[in-house]
Amino acid sequence: MTFRVTVVGAGIVGLSAAWALWRDGHQVTVYEQKALPNSLGSSVDQHRLIRYPYGSELGYTRMVADAYQAWEKLWTDINKKLYAPTGTLVLAKTGESWANDSADTLGQLGLSVQWLDADQLQDTFPLLVADGVESAFYLDSGGVLLADQIITAMVQHLNSRGVTFHTQVQVREIVPDLARIVLSNGIVVDADTLVVAAGPWVTRLLPDLSQRVTPSRQVVVYLEPPPDKIAQWIAAPMILDIDPDSGFYLVPPVLGTELKIGDHRFTLTGDPDCEREAGEAEARAIFEQCKQRLKEFDRYRLQRSCTCFYTVAPQERFIVERLGNSWLMTGFSGHGFKFGPLLGLALAEAVAGRRTANDLSQWAAGHAILDFGFCEKLRAGVPPR
């Protein structure tokens, strides 16, 4: 059966839903409040990471393998692969459990990691300072998704396949039971199915959601490494230096991108339409977090900074729920990009009746397993990368 589908939001989740529903033969129309790609959206930047370590979260760790295979479907459709494998380096500080929990969870899935003590870390990754690091582990899997290029390619692909885009159009109201949207000019648009993937603006369309999701303004900075270190950084893995109180993640400058540093902690503050420029002091604070970790830190330069808004849910559990004749996709808490195509494919299965709404919601929240038939490599102990 073919449905008329309206999608609100053209970030990675909305575009992935549009892509998967188009693949299933539906008539899809996408509404986006800004031009495409939306420079204020959560999905638009040079890069996003995909990696297996997820602490003790078995559901999300397993989901990464399916995410890789969903990306392969997308690469085939758009006829290009906008991804650079880098490997993943996870640092563990004394008294911090996230790295050990991640390794234990990976072990439950038959995936081994290469443990390094502080001396081995220093020898293997000489760009880093191992002070304060108790141990670390390395995985060959993990890499960089070229986010802004992916968004552009998806829009071009879908547009060429008959998906309709309405850009710089504000949606004023949604009526979930009727799969209806009302535009700012008063025009009413009805569909058979409505998908709401409005990112940090979602509570303006569904005010009751403000009790469940919170916009979070995040600052990222871009560094200029010393000229004699650039080649080493291009070949470096992503670095996760994470604990509950401090730390950062680092994205290597692959394929012409810049070296990026971000703070993994949520601010849980901010308005996605305001304060979009990062202040000098807050950018400097992120930069200084690297001081104890980057060798010859004084030779690095802070090039620029920007902000990104996440939509954070309690315990970072994704929200994919049916509301009448509509579907809500939100609360991805900074993790949505890596899972975008997989979320779209899963939603399309639910729209077609091949999955129940409850199964989809429980899976998205990390509580249940859905078998997409993708995971032969994972079952054999070989993670897709």
- Oligomeric state of the chains present here: single chain
Helix content: 25-40%
Please indicate the count of domains: 1
Give the biggest beta sheet: 8 strands, mixed
Identify the CATH architecture.
3-Layer(bba) Sandwich
Query: Helical element count?
Result: 11
Spatial order of strands in the largest sheet: 6-7-5-15-16-17-14-18
Low-pLDDT residue spans: 376-381
CATH topology title: FAD/NAD(P)-binding domain
Question: What is the first-to-last residue Cα distance?
Answer: 35 Å
**What portion of the residues fall into strands of 2 or more residues?**
25-35%
- Tell me the radius of gyration: 21 Å
Q: Taking all residues together, what is the mean pLDDT?
A: 94
Question: What is the SS-derived class?
Answer: alpha+beta
Describe this protein's structure.
This protein is of the alpha+beta class. The chain has a single domain (4-379), classed as FAD/NAD(P)-binding domain (3-Layer(bba) Sandwich). The chain contains eleven helices and 20 strands. The protein has helices at 12-23, 58-78, 98-108, 118-124, 147-160, 202-205, 230-234, 280-289, 336-351, 357-364, 376-379, and strands at residues 4-8, 27-32, 48-50, 83-85, 88-93, 114-117, 133-139, 143-145, 164-167, 171-175, 180-183, 188-190, 193-196, 214-224, 238-242, 247-251, 259-262, 301-312, 319-323, 326-330. The chain has an eight-stranded mixed sheet, with helices on both faces. The protein has a six-stranded mixed sheet with strand order 9-2-1-13-20-19. Strands 3-8-4 form a three-stranded antiparallel sheet, covered by helices on one side. α1 (12-23) links the parallel β1 and β2. α1 (12-23) runs parallel beside α5 (147-160) and α2 packs across α9. The longest helix is centred in the first third of the chain and has 21 residues, at 58-78. The two termini are 35 Å apart. Pfam families: DAO.
